[in-house]
Amino acid sequence: MPQWNGVIGCEVLVMEPHQRLAYSWGALGLESVVAWTLTPTAGGTLVRMEHSGFGADQDAAFKGATYGWQKFIGGLESVLAALPERRER
User: Fold this and answer.
1) What is the reported pTM?
2) Cα–Cα distance between 10 and 24 in angstroms, integer?
3) CB under 8 Å to 61, separation ≥6 — which residues?
């Protein structure tokens, strides 16, 4: 993006080890929050990511974030699928 220097300002807002991480996300005039939640399940761990704080006038930013997160999470799924299964002891 021509107007973006590639830097995202952030601050950790919540950190609960093995449960939750939330941080502010600031770039190109967008101030939002990204939150990751880990929930144990019988088959492993459910990972939920939520990026909130988009205003009604920030449709382009929302679409850009949606595209970027889909690529990132798709890549993360591939990396995790290639790892040997690990169980905590």
Assistant:
1) 0.79
2) 5
3) 28, 30, 54
Strands (E), 11-84: 12-16, 20-27, 30-41, 44-52
Chain centre to alpha carbon of residue 7: 16
Average pLDDT score, the chain: 88
* Topology, domain 12-82: Alpha-D-Glucose-1,6-Bisphosphate; Chain A, domain 4 (3.30.530)
Q: How confident is the model at residue 89 (pLDDT cuts 50, 70, 90)?
A: very low
Residue-wise pLDDT tens digits, 11-26: 999 999 999 999 998 8
Nearest to 37 by CA among 53, 54, 22: 22
Q: Cα dihedral sign for 81, 83, 85, 86?
A: negative
CA-CA-CA-CA dihedral for 82, 20, 72, 7, to nearest 10: -130
